[in-house]
Each structure stands twice: as C-alpha cells, then as structure tokens.
Amino acid sequence: SSTSNTLCAGQSATLTATANGVTSYSWNTGSTQNPLTVSPSGTTSYTVTGNSLCPGHGVITITVNQLPSVSINSALICAGQSATLSASGTATSYTWTAGDGTSLPHTSTVVVSPSSTTSYTLTGSNAAGCSSNNTTMVNVSDPHASFTGMPNATETIETVLNLQNTSTGASNVAWSTCYGIYTTTTVTLPLNDEGVCCVTLYAYEGSCIDSVTQCVTVVPKARLIVPNVFTPNGDGRNDNFTLDAVGIGDITIAIFDRWGLKMFETSTSGNIKWDGKTKNGALVPDGTYFYMLKATGLDGENYDLKGTINVFQ
Questions:
Q1: What are the pLDDT digits (tens) for 13-35?
Q2: How far is CA 25 from CA 29, 37, 60, 132, 233, in A?
Q3: In the beta sheet, which residues pair with residue 37?
C-alpha cells in the first residue's frame, strides 16, 4: 500500500508491505526498509518481496504528474506609476501574492502600483493539481533632487556660488544655470551679471526624473558716499545735494541747521535730491548744515551716518 498512488513531481510517498509470517522485505530499489519512502521523478512501479520459505511478491505503481512551468516578467517603474505583471507557462490557474502577504486577483495578468521596490510571487497550478512558484521584483525608482550652495535670496555681483548635489535615489544629475549646463556633482558658479539667476538641478534614475529650482537676485556692490558741499545758485553746476549711491535700497535722511531746525527730510527707495530749499520753498542761507542718514544696501548692509554739509550760493 502507499500513502498516495498519485504524486506531483518533487513529492514523496510512503510504501508499506504486509504479509503473514514474513519478517523481512526486499524492494527492487535495493532497500530492505519497510515502510519505504520514495520520491520518484516520473511514474514508477515498485516491487517488494516478502522473505520467507515461500517468498511472496507485491507490485505498486506510483503515478507522477509533472509540475507546470511558470514564468513572470519583472518591471522597473517610477514612483507613482503602475506595472503590468504577466504569467506564462503551462499552468491553468494562477495565484499572486505581494511581498507583504497581500493577495492579488487570480488572473494571468495583474496591474500593481507599489510605492517602493516590492517582490511578487506567482503560483501556477495545472489540471492535475500540481503547482509551481516563481518570484519577480518590481523595482521603483524615486529620485529626489536637492542641492546646497544658494543660502541667500540676494547676493552681490562677483559672488561665487559653490553648488553641491545632495539628491537621493539618483545615479545621474544635470544642472541648468544662468551661465550654462553642467553634469558634474559640484558646480562653481561666479555671479558676473546683475539680475535674477536661477539654477535647476535634474536628478535621474533610469527614465525617472525629479527637479528643483532655486533663484538668486544679483545686486551691485553697495556704495554710499555723502558729499560735503553743494552750491544751489542755479548755474547748472552742483546745484543739488545728491548721494553717490550704488546698490542702495531704502534711504532716510534729515538735514538740520546749526540750531537744530529741520531744513529737509525724505525717505525713499532710490537716491535723494535736495535743492537747498526749505519746506516753504526758500533757499537756505550759506553755512554749515548737519545730516543724519540711515540706509540699507541691496546686499543687506546697514548704514547709519552723520556729518556736515556746506552750502554756498
């Protein structure tokens, strides 16, 4: 007798011989064990002999059904995309299981959308009830672009930016800058022109791509010089008090006479101009006047100046 007369390839059966008055047995496999465990690769007949004065024989046939062939494709996708997994081979029914144990539809084709690289196991069965497994991977590329080297929203001209790629999940990068294209990990970028300079970093992994953009406003180097004399006499030369201001943003100035009376005051986001007149339109007399000035450069530098102005007609 056998625990099973029909097996799938790779399974085993236990054969047991019984006979009255027999104390030992011999199998055509050469074994004398009883019971005997066998794992035939194909349909096989086993003969046993009961050893006694009058030997007896028994025969049993174990039918072996072959396993179905099961194949499955792999896939590489970008994060957020889907992959189609298709089974092929000699199986007649299928069962899919994700790496986390989740069961999928029992069809020959499934569509999956893993958020990270995940394994999928396919079990295929045939009409004889035999099954085979195969496992595949859906690899998920998820590059994240990032870089350092542009800490400030505003920089003065001739500043040199040292850009460093800090992207993750990417094997290649490309830089698009206001001064050209680069494919190196680091980029040294001198800011030679005023205006807005934008840098975009593209991070690649296969066909998957992510990008990030940062911009900086390039301003001139700040300069602020206050003249100490002007002549508001209408001759067309040095008639107004103006600052030599470059790269200066907000300016506030107040001008006083020697007794502390305010002659002029203004706040502006550009340069200033004083024609030497008071608020009522009268020219101030010749003499020495005092100014108090506060300003902020486009580069962020602050100015707090005090001094004298000499007025001559």
A1: 999 999 988 889 999 999 999 99
A2: 12, 14, 15, 36, 137
A3: 14
